[in-house]
Fold:
Amino acid sequence: MVEVLKEQVAEKSLLVNNIRREIDKILVGQRDLVDGLLVGLFTKGHILIEGVPGLAKTSAVMALASTVQAEFKRIQFTPDLLPADLIGTEIYRPKTGDFSIKKGPVFHNIILADEINRAPSKVQSALLEAMQERQVTIGETTFDLPDPFMVMATQNPIEQEGTYPLPEAQVDRFMLKVLIDYPEKNEEKEILKRVGFETPRQIQQVMTPEELDAVVSLIREIYMDEKLKDYIVDIVLATRKPDDYDIEVSDYIQFGASPRATIFLSLAARVYAFLRGRAYVTPQDIKIIAPAVLRHRIILSYEAEAENISPDQIIGQIFDSIEVP
Structure:
């Protein structure tokens, strides 16, 4: 059974290589971002990408969507966006005296919610049902969304002018929050070369919906030892009751991670192992992917904000304190 699983992982890893090759035509560097997007793709989970403008967040999501045979829609979130602009609305027909449904752009497989934190709370609430239940309600009728349905959202840091903090309930629906930074010097030179001196490259579709479903099913079979499951549970519990683990960060945490963190960390670690061509999870897989799963689920206290303590610093202390199996 183990040998069969290894062979299947090796076979499906060729798809990963093909996707990476196509994305590399557009994106320079940003390895963590690509890994995060692939984790979202292979779990059909939602991904939140945060970084200052100009770091190719939008280009990365569009490149990923272009590699998959799926319906893609980009929605530019603005302060004047209405819920009906997102999910659709009822239209009155005077000739017949009844209403017809006009579905919105959310009825696509991969949604790019560009600058999601620039839209007001009513729009965020409309997106919440779609993300969690994978359905939307227009008038009195509820419609199922297509499978797969993934929201790949980008946002600028909260301190940027004209942004709205996302509600905690909605942030928790995102499987990962990926932070991206400026490129290295050699990467920036490559960007300059491609944009200013080369013909834009075309991305090819390299994965069918059936192949995506096969990878999703395979990932759920990736082996995870019972000790690693306990390790994940301890990590999440330490964000809620750090004193139980002799970690002195309780003054900095207002609320710890939800049970979704446990589920998503287990699943994301298996995807990360798969991306590295392995049929089993290691502690290092968990440690690498955990910050992206936890950072948006730890609600900081006023003391943490006053002392400029970040969620990633707290996560680092937790990993330093909990014994690795």
Notes: The longest strand covers residues 88-93. Residues 2-210 form a domain with the Rossmann fold fold (CATH 3.40.50.300). The radius of gyration is 21 Å. The chain has 13 helices and eleven strands.
